[in-house]
Design a protein that fits this description.
Layout lengths: L3 H4 L4 H29 L6 H29 L1 H24 L12 H31 L5 H30 L1 H20 L15 H4 L3 H32 L11 H18 L2 H5 L1 H21 L3 H27 L7 H29 L2 H14 L24
Helix pairs in contact: 2-3, 2-5, 2-6, 2-7, 3-4, 3-5, 3-14, 4-5, 4-7, 5-14, 6-7, 6-10, 6-13, 9-12, 9-13, 9-14, 9-15, 10-13, 12-13, 12-15
Length: about 425
Amino acid sequence: MRPLADAGTRGAAFWLIVAGSTAGHVVNAGTAPAVARLAQGPLGGDAALAGLLVSLAAIASIAAMPIAGALADRLGARRVLLAAGLLSAIGLVAVLLAAGAARPPSSSGTVEAPVLALAAGRIVFGAGNAAVATALTAWVVAEAPRRERGRALGLFGLSVWVGLALGPVLGENLEQVAGSSGIWSGAIALQLLGVAAASFARDGRASAHPPASRIRSQRTPFARHLARPGAVGFTAWAAEGFMIAFLIQHLVRQGLDAQGLLGAANVFTVFAGSVIAVRLLLGGLPDRLGPVVTARIALVVLALGLAVLAIADGFALAALGAALIGAGYSPLFPALTLLATGELPAHRRSAGVGVFSALTSAGYAAGSLLGGLLVAAADETAALLVLAAAQLLVLPLLRRTRGGGVPEAPTTEPPPL
């Protein structure tokens, strides 16, 4: 099998990495609803407990991503992938055991062992699953050919959307066929299979020393490289976090039905379809226009889509807004990832991937939290308009860099595994 550095997106190595990433996202999306049902069913908790247990994985992921990126620089993406895959599987096993021992809380109000085991399992799984995603992203950034690195990141990022689409469906079917334990057993198997598939790809090794041509960039503080793309990513993904939490509520208040073919829920279908379609058609945009120009265009389109959603009073206008938002997000991830890593020395790019990923995840969480405060103070329309304006306000942060934001291929021989 030819390595990713040689074959690029046309080789089997790249698609094995995509398969591993997809499996992780399927597991994450498929198990979250099961955790909520477990908390409110056998464990006898309320919606607050369910929300807390679901969110623990996301909180752990924010902490784990920078650590996983730094370790990938020192040990290589493949080693981090294998260790992180095992960690996530251990977390799923803990949840499986907690589900088997689930019982309602005692009348004294003390927290029962199954709840604590479930919480611990979610933290371990969240950290491991996020580390898997970070290691695989770092692998693509480090070894995809320079000429198509933006396209490679765009296609790789589709694994998130495939996971979100397939995960809940797979989880529901597993529960119907094999019961509650079937979800967790299936999740463990799929997580390990995904890691195994990605590990068959060649290379995934970190560079021991920075290329001589990039020595100067090491003198610039690490945080300075990440501050601008990180702030833009935080702001952009805050809008997505808000939409996930409040968009259906907003559109229902605007007169749409919640369900049905032309209902508010299907606006998300348009959004996801737009991301996938634009990425397949224009996945190489960051490679052709450069990451700075691409990110600027993407932010303007994203802001326009948010403004349209703010005033949408029917499905057609809401679908237009969702399509624009999808078209904005589609090239934004690869463009910002290139900007976050492009001026870093080779031996620190994986750490850059980890920190940037954590910032986007933090933005996603902040979007729902701060958006809720905006909704409470005004309404969803005002919140969407504020978020639209925020995308335009961060445009000046996107500036051209000497290297154009695209990392050079490593020039030193990676250490052996």
